[in-house]
Amino acid sequence: MDVPPQVREHIYRYFGVAPLYSYHPDMDDAVLHGRIWSATAYASIHELDGGFNRVFCYGGVPWPLTSNFHGLLLSCRTLYAEAARLLYSQNMFVVRDLEPLRALVPPPSPPCKVSRLSSARRRATASRATTRPISGVAMHAIIPPASPQLLPSETSAKRKSSATTAATISLRSAGTTPRAETCSKTITPNRLELALVCDVDDTDVKAGELAVAPLCLLPQLRNCHVRLCRTRYPQLQQVAEHAVLHACRFPPVEQQQPPHISSRLLSLPRELRFRILEDTDLITPWSEVTWSRQHGGSYFESEPACLNPEGFDIRCPPDIHAGCRLRRCWDNMYPAPSLGCFCRRQHTAASSACRCWASSRALFLVCRTLCDDARAVFFSGNRFVVHDYLYISPFTAPDPDGEYPGDRFAASQFLRDVVPAGCHRYLRFLELVFPAYSHRRWPRDDDHHPALRDWRDTVEWLRPRINDPVLTLRVVMSESCEDDPPEDRPQMTKAQGDKIIAAYRRILHPLTRLTLADNDGNALARFYAQLACPWSRTAEAPAWSWTSDDSYRRDLVPRMERLLRERAERLVMGDRYDSLYPPDAEEPSKCLWQERYARIYY
């Protein structure tokens, strides 16, 4: 008791009452790296299960048990008050049962100092047998993101009919309202950060409203996170968002004008509407969209391989990393640890911590005029990458035996069936990616193979529908994985490789139609090719190359790929090649799939 209070606080921290260092905005990167990440965690989680306490910490750093400082709380009133203040204000607490909340008593009890609390309630269903604790809340995404393949419906159609009644009884009988009234007396306004998890049936809006109703009885919260369902459901999402706004005392978004009056946005010039829509989620964080027919035929936002959104030890280039903070919010540990997964893309949840990008589908449904504007911004503001096979693993090819897997190229299907009519003229960048098909898989007959005939017809059909002077086209014949190449690649002969190069030419030749000037003198703005050398994965240098193994891979293969690229671009661009491709000209940056999967495979 003779030492200053500041010294006693450091002693409490070393005993494990609170983290050794807590985050504050003035910490620079050196302090964060040197103290927090190397020394110890800057927050801990106490999980309270009705009397049983489990302590979690971040980063695998051992954290002292509560028994280490339990004696401090029993020694004297002064030490108890100081230690309890640190314990409840510097740590996070998880409540899975109402029993710990019943221990709260009016001030000056220390629970009034609690700063971060997470409540994980049981799922409200009609059958007690299916009631189970929700996934845990902890420092690093302990509430995992949902996966549609892993989350089948837990409630049959028969039980859904009685779900609302059962959920109402369950939530009303749980005593949440009296507990909320008691807690409201012990909470300092604008101090507590509360995370509520109560997964109800996806169509049970009434149960969701009952789950968040006690939040109205609490004083203003510093921050609030609510999750009402493991899967996404729009009506429940609205309930969660309104609950968070009310808990933090943010004014609700009021409707400015009656529904029958059209928006003032439509009265603006179209150029201004475009600028407004460009600031929405119509443009992905990396301005790149992926499409593959093997994955449902839907658009996907392209993503890099970076798994470190908080910015420490950046793993991707800065120009790419700018969008990494708009994804995987449950992994973000900076500036404060995550209370769990409250991602609006994965769950029916509302949280200020989630800044993940989500597609603005609602903009296409407002009216015809706004739909046309949204399409124009979407197709002109993003680069489009079309994979002929798997986009998840673009270096993987189907079994080398057999014919080409389909009667159409994915590019033909995308341009004819996926892009809406009238939107081809908005395209600014299009990349067509083909995997490393074997010499037997590539279409071989120009006149009889349906995929090649359809491809020629598609290019002819596309010619008057695109805006040539602003469109850049790139064709990529990707390489196979170095660690696990297809069976034919390690022993590729010269004749087999020549067949693959001939297949490249069959796909590229119809594109020459796009570079011929039309009646107005317009032609394709730019064309780029990236063609993999068929012999790059041979186990030994081919005999016809007259080089050693090291020299073959280091010198000859890159030289052959540069030659293939130049020949392809000259074939498509014709006489315009020399004027459009000076030696110092820069090609557009590689798309994200190459940056992502080249790092994974190599």
Automatic annotation (TrEMBL):
<protein>
    <recommendedName>
        <fullName>F-box domain-containing protein</fullName>
    </recommendedName>
</protein>
<dbReference type="InterPro" id="IPR038883">
    <property type="entry name" value="AN11006-like"/>
</dbReference>
